[in-house]
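Known limitations

Structure tokens in this collection are predictions and should be treated as such. Users comparing against experimental data should check residue numbering before alignment. To illustrate the layout, the record for PTS EIIA type-1 domain-containing protein is reproduced below. The input appears on top and the generated tokens appear beneath it.
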Amino acid sequence: MIKLFKSSKKIAIKAPVSGKIIPLESVSDEVFAQKMMGDGIAIIPNDGQIVSPVDGTIGMIADTKHALGITTKNGLEVILHLGIDTVELNGSPFKMEVTNGAIVKAGQPIASMDIEQIQEAKKDPVVMTLFTNSSEKIKEFNPKSGNTNISEDVADIILN
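Generated tokens:
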């Protein structure tokens, strides 16, 4: 059998946290707002439970636990960035529930963060889901807006 065309791969991105979806361009850090780390979505969290937005493998957990990377089977590289300038908090508001190399499913609990501690330190607790190889991998990115609950679909991606 010969395939005459390659079908597009569509991936549903789950909300890693409950809260209000905001455009990535409106976050207070220019590196993220200008999409220097890739396209993505930001959510102002209502609580601190964090789940995986995609099926994949944990490939990176920052020493300060403020960020972790997940790679999907299609090669999409996803970074979950927990707050802005939270690297300065040396990991204290974060608890990881996974380790490097773990295989995760979308909606699986992977971390938690203490929003009050982050806010008391005068940091922004916004949770960003970034696609670091979006320019090579993503053909179409369709984020949703409004409020979301943890594990709900917040964006659709069509891969190249």
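For this record: The two ends are 23 Å apart (CA to CA). Residues 18-159 form a domain with the Glucose Permease (Domain IIA) fold (CATH 2.70.70.10). Please report discrepancies through the issue tracker.
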